[in-house]
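ENTRY TYPE: paired fold submission
RECORD: A
CONTENT: sequence, then structure tokens
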Amino acid sequence: MEFGRRLAAAVRLPHPRRERVELGDGAWAFPDPDVLVLRQREYGDWLMYRFTNSGEFCGDTWHRTIADADKQAAYEYGSTVGAWIEIPASEQDDVAYASRLAKESRLPGPANGSSQRGV
């Protein structure tokens, strides 16, 4: 599947859970993410993926608009979500790119509780 725009944001939780937790009856809770990656699909809708810095998958959600995806990120992670940045088209692996920037503290962190995250 080809994607249009791709964006990334850091999540800076104070005490992130790093392991998968069994909830019972075959259900699991994913680890807390370090990065969010938004991918625009061919019809204009968006997928928001969550990953740890090591690339472990932490869940995904579908959104009709980029604003809806941003609202979901704010709902789930509050003021710990940083500004969204465009992922260059030259970057083949958007997750590795976002994780690398987050590890190097080059992916913007939260802006003092600001709700303006650049989408």
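RECORD: B
CONTENT: sequence, then structure tokens
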Amino acid sequence: MDCTATPTCRTDSRGTATTQCTASDVLRWAALPDLADAATDQIVFPMRRVASGRALIREGQPFERLHLVGSGSFKCIQTDAEGYEQGLAFAIHGDILGLDGLGQPQHTTGAVALEDSSVVALPFQQLRTLSRTVPALEALLHHAAGAEVLSRGDTHYLMSAPGSEVRVARFLLQLSRRQAALGYSDRRLRMRMTRRDIASYLGVAHETVSRALTALAQDGCIQLSQRDVDLVDLGALREVQRVTRGRPPQHRRSGTTGQASWSVPRTAQKAPRPTLQ
């Protein structure tokens, strides 16, 4: 997949320099490169930069546009009446933000930059009008809606895990797959979110996330390097994610082959059937 941005700088009638990209760029970044053509080359959308920690979308903000992530990353959040921030998702290059506003007068969730980022602004009414004559843009909307449904399915699968280590393992593997789809390493993860952000998303305390990461590192599944995580044993990590009851068994390495062996906890072993005397 071509992840290289090719924005251009243009000067408007007031002499202000603005960064823009074409609809063809948007299609390529959204993993739909085959739909780009001469028509989409002529359609231009504005881009904007979002500094780390700044809100791109605020809860209650009128729904006017979607945003495609050109670079950087975001956390999607929802705040309750007491001010608690619930993490809903993490968005990276190629993801579209703001879909919660479809069919609604305003956004019910927010999006905050986890690092210095850039987005393509897609005015929704303009997008709808163009999609009537440019089928590629209609396909883009369908693709974005489908990706949102798949993302929620991944979240439900993650949250169905009974233990924190399993949830963390599933979370790391999901990030690994997303990075691999962009052409990046599936073993070294760029963790731009904080432990507290991860904890909010997983529905656990941030101390629990730290303990789970430490346990996975001690078991030889991962290696921690400040805020980055190296997946040193993908096979072992996949074994952890498949655990559906209780705490995953301890991972023990045999020799120097790096292969994982998993022991069944004694409590889970079947007791011998008593015999009648």
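NOTES ON RECORD B: Residues 1-5, 252-277 have pLDDT under 50 and may be disordered. The first helix runs from residue 23 to 29.
STATUS: closed
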